[in-house]
Amino acid sequence: MIKNYSALLFTVMLFSVSGMAQTDIPQKKDLKIDTANKIDDTAKPNQGTSLKIPSVVDDQPQVDFDFAKRNPVKMIDDRELVQAGAGMKIDPKVGPRQPKEGSKQHFADMYLGDVKNNGKFVGIVCRDHEFVDGDRVKIYVNGDVVDPNILLTSSFKGVNVDLKKGFNRIDFEALNVGSSPPNTAQINVYDDKGELIYANKWLLSEGSKATLIITKE
Fold first, then answer.
1. Rounded to an integer, what distance in angstroms lies between the CA atom of residue 96 and that of residue 161?
2. Residue 90: pLDDT band by 50, 70, 90 thresholds?
């Protein structure tokens, strides 16, 4: 009895396993592969929608590169063009000056004016303000010679003059007229603090004097 039961149980289990195996194992299907689309090389391509693009070459005007025939480009109307320098006024004092060599004009004594100063002394300097040509002068203070021979150059040269109360007379005598007459000079006067208090110029013939008065109260 027991043997028959065991055989029956084995048979049942065998059928159960066989049913599960048929259910769980995926069924086999054949894969169908179709022929790929073949490209027809002889067919005409699709033209699509045509675009109307204006020509950038054919519609351009012909440019003449013959410079002998072309007119130059004018940026301004001819009526607005003026000659360079038109309307310019030239100062006759500007530009090359006529040399003074050989001047026959006589330059007499010259009064330079007067200036007031209450300092202890003044500094008097002078230089040739024209062409440096060897002009020389002698300086007097109240009739006394303080410098017998100063050669005027482009640099200032001079003397210090002690001031006394009242009038102090300074004379500059032209010893020559150099190679280019007349004797020419610029004169500057400084107080004892170094401040410029007077400036002037002279034109003298040989032997003539330029006189300056300095008054001290």
1. 38
2. very low
DSSP string, 94-152: SSPPPP-TT-------EEEEEEE--SSEEEEEEE--S--S--EEEEEETTEEEEEEEE-
Question: Is the model's pLDDT at 16 over the cut of 90?
Answer: no
Report the share of the chain in percent with pLDDT over 90: 48
Q: pLDDT tens across 130-148, in order?
A: 889 999 999 999 999 999 9
Question: If we measure between CA atoms, which residue out of 1, 5, 210, 189 comes closest to residue 108?
Answer: 210
Residue in this structure with the two tokens 């054949």, named with its chain if needed = 30
List residues bridging with 15 in a β-sheet: none
On the question of pLDDT at 98 being above 80, the answer is no
What lies within 8 Å, CB to CB, of 151 at 6+ separation is: 134, 135, 136, 157
**Verdict on whether the full-model pTM lies above 0.70:** no
**Residue position matching structure tokens 């190679």:** 179
- Enumerate residues 6+ apart whose C-beta is below 8 A from 147: 138, 139, 159
CB 142, CB 161: distance < 8 Å? no
